[in-house]
Design goal:
Amino acid/polyamine transporter I; transmembrane helix
Length: about 450
């Protein structure tokens, strides 16, 4: 019965929510995926990230508006269910859960790769296991402690990205010592701005969408946020400009300083390569450490998102009620432990696939982010059609044009990605979606029996 379900506490503030969104989005997709995106699109990767950023802006505006109008919502599943029905909500919940558990597994391996920068003799799987144990421990703390940890981790990496941007512009325009300012010549000197044509740009969009994925975690924090109808719109406004800036400017610096065809195929991140160019002793080690913290921060946010989705499902009686049980510190301990188990699955996978694990998982995750954004956009479009007129509070000024633009852009990106992505990744992802649909037909549409 409802009274038996333990409730999450509203202890997260606007600064926590903003940093969580940044923590979820500024992780392996930026620091490790950047090499892949640049290799696919060359300098035109800047256009890919600009398109992705604008689409993300439109999606998040719609999410914020729906959150303001549905104050009782716990996650964006509740927002979608009232508009698109139970199947769409069920599908969204489980693909979002799948996205995060696979993402934290992938990022555990990426974190291990950066640890190998200092410990080259230690196997990837051992380092991934160490990172996984750290993440598990942090998430079992109280929500406030978790949010505070995430806040400072995100703040550290944002500070260093700002330093990276400043240092990058100095390297671009000023000569000193053995360094000669290169200006913008690398943007066109190696096959032009579109070295791999429009196809390269379209293929890179999967990496781009994956990289931006995680920002929508704001929609999972509703049950633990103080005054979500005020906090969520403010967090959306302040977060999006920062995400776009923290992607576009660093990528502009990387493709301007380093020939795009020299970025991929090396073990270190392009960010570490740029810090090496500065010539400050130990700068590369500093950047490697910050990237490691950034990825741990992203994993932190991901495990939070996955465990809260599972908690909500248990509260509604769709999975065993044990996953709704809270610890003395008011965190869903069993939900966290189940989601954490996928970290260790990732560790086992890395035992055989090694550093290629991230590339294998990233394709499926990109598809999932596309689907999540599409469902949020469609729900926002239909929410106004239900006769609900927005007269007060946060609302999207240029509705429905921005939402339609987002849907059309996502559809075009999806078609392009299907045509340019490995058929194996596409079929595996389609199989997962089919499994979720079949599970709904047999279990998901039944009324709550445990809650």
């Amino acid at each position: 019965m409802e009274k038996e379900i333990e409730k999450l506490e509203r202890t997260m503030t606007a600064r926590h929510i903003m940093m969580m969104a940044l923590g979820g989005a500024i992780g392996a997709g930026l620091f490790k995926g950047s090499s892949k995106a640049i290799d696919l699109a060359g300098p035109s990767v800047l256009i890919a990230y600009l398109i992705g950023g604008v689409v993300l802006l439109f999606i998040m505006q719609g999410l914020a508006e729906m959150a303001v109008r549905h104050r009782e919502a716990r996650t964006f599943r509740d927002l979608v269910q009232s508009i698109l029905g139970p199947y769409a909500a069920y599908f969204l919940d489980w693909i979002y859960w799948k996205m995060w558990v696979l993402n934290i597994a992938a990022e555990a391996v990426v974190a291990a790769i950066f640890l190998q920068y200092w410990l080259p003799g230690v196997p990837i799987w051992v380092l991934a296991l160490f990172v996984s144990l750290v993440i598990t421990s942090v998430n079992l703390l109280s929500v406030k402690s978790f949010a505070e940890t995430e806040y400072w981790l995100a703040l550290i990496k944002i500070t260093v990205i700002v330093v990276f941007i400043i240092a990058g512009f100095i390297l671009l325009f000023f000569s000193f010592g053995n360094h000669t300012a290169v200006g913008f010549s690398h943007l066109t000197d190696h096959g032009g701005f579109f070295p791999n044509g429009a196809g390269g740009l379209i293929t890179a969009m999967l990496v781009v969408i994956y990289s931006y994925g995680g920002t929508e975690i704001i929609g999972v924090t509703l049950a633990e946020t103080k005054n979500p109808e005020q906090v969520v719109p403010r967090a959306v406004r302040s977060t999006l400009t920062r995400i776009i800036a923290f992607y576009l400017l660093p990528f502009f610096i990387i493709v301007s300083l380093i020939p795009w065809n020299q970025v991929n195929g090396v073990s270190e991140s392009p960010f570490v390569m740029v810090f090496k160019m500065i010539g400050i002793p130990g700068a590369d080690h500093l950047m490697n450490a910050v990237i490691l913290l950034a990825i741990i921060s992203s994993m932190n946010s991901g495990l939070y998102g996955a465990s809260r989705i599972l908690y909500t499902q248990a509260s509604d009686g769709r999975v065993p009620k044990i996953f709704s049980k809270l610890s003395a510190k008011k965190v869903p301990v069993y939900a966290i432990l189940l989601c954490t188990s996928f970290l260790y699955v990732g560790v086992l996978f890395s035992l055989f696939a090694g550093s290629q694990t991230f590339d294998y998982l990233m394709g499926s995750l990109g598809y999932t982010v596309l689907m999540i954004w599409m469902l949020i956009a469609i729900a926002h479009l239909k929410s106004r059609k239900r006769g609900q007129t927005v007269t007060a509070g946060y609302h999207v000024k240029w509705f429905p044009y921005t939402t339609w633009l987002a849907i059309l852009a996502l559809t075009a990106i999806l078609i392009g990605v299907v045509l340019t992505t490995s058929i194996v990744i596409t079929l595996v992802t389609a199989g997962i979606y089919m499994f979720i649909t079949v599970a709904y037909l047999f279990k998901g549409r039944k009324p709550n029996v445990n809650g």
